[in-house]
Amino acid sequence: xxxxxxxxxxxxxxxxxxxxxAIQEFYELTGRAILNVTRRPHYGDxxxxxxxxxxxxxxxxxxxTGFFSGAVMAMQMGRSLQDYGQVGRTGTxxxxxxxRELGPVLASVMVAGRNASGIxxxxxxxxxTEQIDAMRALGTDPVQKLVTPRMIxxxxxxxxxxxxxxxxxxVGGWVMSVLLFGLPTRQYWTLTWQALVWNDxxxxxxxxxxxxxxxxxxxCFYGLRTTGGTQGVGRATTQAMVAASVAIFIxxxxxxxxxxxxxx
Length: 264
Fold this sequence. Notes:
Blueprint: H1 2-35, H2 44-54, H3 59-82, H4 90-128, H5 131-137, H6 142-181, H7 185-194, H8 198-224, H9 229-263
Helix pairs in contact: 1-6, 2-6, 3-4, 3-6, 4-6, 4-7, 4-8, 4-9, 6-7, 6-8, 8-9
């Protein structure tokens, strides 16, 4: 009995050792990647390539999801507002919901599904084929060469993609408002722009900027710690996508809480 009680805490500590070590390694990677922004070399060509792959490559999916989410939102909100004779304010609700919440979160989740998994797959393949070890042997810092350019590119392009998502969502809401409710175009767009204040715009741009670090760094983290050959690459890809998506919703809660507290 005495020996069993003595060894039980060690089993608990062994269980926690893996997650705690992973968190420590992630924060270490994050710190190195951010510090490398001020260090040479900056690998500008790699940053531009990643901006093209992450930003431009994600435009089609952002356009599709943004348009249809705005259209569905206008359809649902318009029918609810009809009961109160306020269907003319459909654009107001569409713009506020898109800019504050749905636009940043939806665009970030789409980018996470496409790029966090892609980054993890790319770096994981380099890890299992020992290309990263060869890079270290040649005197190149893998974090400086591989992680920092992806982090910078995502931080620049994700807010831009969010702006596109917001605008296309408003266009989708306008189409539904005109077709289903006969709302005048001038009235829709006037109320849409008047509903937005600087607090909404700042919140809508800060969120994707913060989310970009979670997406890029989580993808790089799981890619760089990949083991087990091709099966390990598949696991890293799935883990990166799931972890990045969950992190987006958690960060969204805290950022929204900050803005709500400031305005109350």
